[in-house]
Design brief:
eight-stranded mixed beta sheet; D-Amino Acid Oxidase, Chain A, domain 2; FAD/NAD(P)-binding domain; 38% helix; globular
């Protein structure tokens, strides 16, 4: 960094990298605490993002932020999740109202471009200097905590910021994690996704109309997410070896994939794929070896990402950002407590993600498939799973006990079907070592 740039550096308390849900949450809360916060989003809102389904445990965070009414106005009411089953209806509904913890009885599903813009605007309303089209290209830490950040704008300007603290909420760019060489591939799970948006897809009937629907198929799982204006988000999360098979146009590959689930295909067969647009993204699963250090902390996907099957991404980002904002506040006031606070935060986040991971890693295995197809509420195990689906994985002892008991029942069931379970485990680990070049492909249009 040039001396002239350093002399002209802007000074602030906190820089937040990224204008997604995690970054907007951290920026809003820290600005409310009276800190001078600069938030930097490299794109401009509204911008496309996948991850449209929220969890009930998002709602208390929205309420504390003061945006619950805005989310309600943007979203489709989501009473639960349903999974394909061998019964008369063809699916089982896991209604959030049956959860055993204190989670709200519903959630919402949103267009992420509208949702993310609303949150970023709210951070600005809370006092954050929220900038768009500003990309951090370099970070240099000096002394014990302060950081110097080089920023370039989408109109060609460059400038420097000097900050007392950096919150990295850059999503899957994982900016600081990459710079510090902390990012590591998940050796337990890898997947890739292909998806589009449909108009005229068949919704669920009655009170299940707002459910997210999950379907398994040989190579992974599929989703249907009702969105505003009668649109349905439809896609498949696949293992890398399957997605590598695609030849020709991506649109045809999506359609051929959806046909592998007859139950899902019946709901979209006569629907319109909007603008014939299809997206592909890969290499979902990773984490960072460290969540924070003196003067910096990672939030949401900038820290880790597992798999979208249980719609946990936005909740983990926002709840993690809320916790991280408290750590930043306390660390700036009492620097001697910083490392202990960061360790506690990381332990909490890894524990919650680990509880999701238990289900994610085993979701396509024969035993977990059977347990979801024919759920039993013995010892309230089904209700414990519903609490997990609601995102109640951190602070409710009763829920954690039920999930521990579920793991025990699962382990016993695996012993009864150990050959198929072992084969699935070996296949999953082999796929975790497979490569799929990540990022969003260009849109494939007719």
């Amino acid at each position: 960094m040039a001396d002239q740039a350093e002399m002209a550096a802007e000074l602030c308390d906190v820089v937040v990298i990224g204008g997604g849900p995690g970054g907007s949450t951290a920026a809003a809360l820290l600005a409310r605490h009276g800190y001078k916060v600069i938030a930097l989003e490299k794109a401009r809102h509204p911008r496309f993002h996948i991850g449209e389904s929220l969890l009930p445990m998002n709602l208390p965070v929205f309420e504390r932020l003061g945006v619950l009414d805005k989310v309600r106005a943007l979203g489709v009411f989501k009473p639960g999740a349903d999974f394909e089953a061998d019964n008369e209806r063809g699916y089982n509904t896991y209604a959030f109202a049956r959860a055993i913890g204190q989670s709200p009885p519903h959630a919402y599903q949103v267009w992420r471009q509208d949702f993310d813009k609303m949150l970023y605007d709210h951070a600005r309303d809370c006092g954050a200097d929220a900038r768009e089209g500003h990309e951090v290209v370099q970070v240099e830490q000096r002394g014990s905590r302060e950081s110097w950040l080089d920023v370039k704008t989408d109109d060609g300007r460059s400038y420097c910021i000097q900050a007392r603290y950096v919150v990295d909420a850059s999503g899957r760019d994982a900016f600081l994690s990459a710079k510090r060489k902390l990012r590591r591939r998940n050796d337990q799970h890898q997947s890739a996704a292909i998806f589009g948006h449909y108009r005229g897809a068949e919704p669920r009937a009655g009170e299940d109309a707002g459910n997210i629907s999950i379907y398994r198929f040989e190579h992974g799982w599929m989703w249907m997410i009702p969105l505003p204006d009668g649109v349905m988000s439809v896609g498949a999360v696949c293992r890398p070896d399957y997605l590598k098979q695609r030849k020709g146009r991506t649109v045809e590959f999506l359609l051929d994939t959806l046909k592998l689930s007859p139950a899902l295909w019946r709901r979209v067969e006569h629907a319109e794929l909007i603008d014939n647009e299809v997206r592909v993204t890969g290499n979902y699963s990773y984490d960072s070896m460290q969540m924070g250090g003196p003067g910096w902390v990672l939030v949401g996907d900038a820290f880790a990402f597992l798999d979208p099957v249980f719609s946990s991404g936005v909740y983990l980002a926002m709840s993690g950002a809320e916790q991280a904002a408290a750590v930043v506040d306390q660390s700036l006031r009492e620097p001697q407590r910083e490392m202990a606070l960061l360790r506690k935060l990381e332990k909490r986040q890894r524990a919650g993600m680990g509880r999701f991971a238990f289900f994610i890693y085993r979701f396509n295995g024969p035993v977990m498939q059977q347990m979801f197809r024919q759920p039993r509420n013995t010892w309230q195990l089904e209700q414990g799973v519903i609490s997990m689906l609601a995102g109640d994985l951190f602070d409710t002892p009763r829920v954690l006990r039920k999930l521990g008991l579920f793991k025990l029942v699962y382990a016993v069931s695996v012993l009864r079907d150990w050959r198929r379970s072992r084969a699935e485990h070996k296949y999953r680990l082999a796929q975790a070592r497979a490569q799929f070049l990540g990022g969003n492909t260009p849109l494939d249009k007719v």
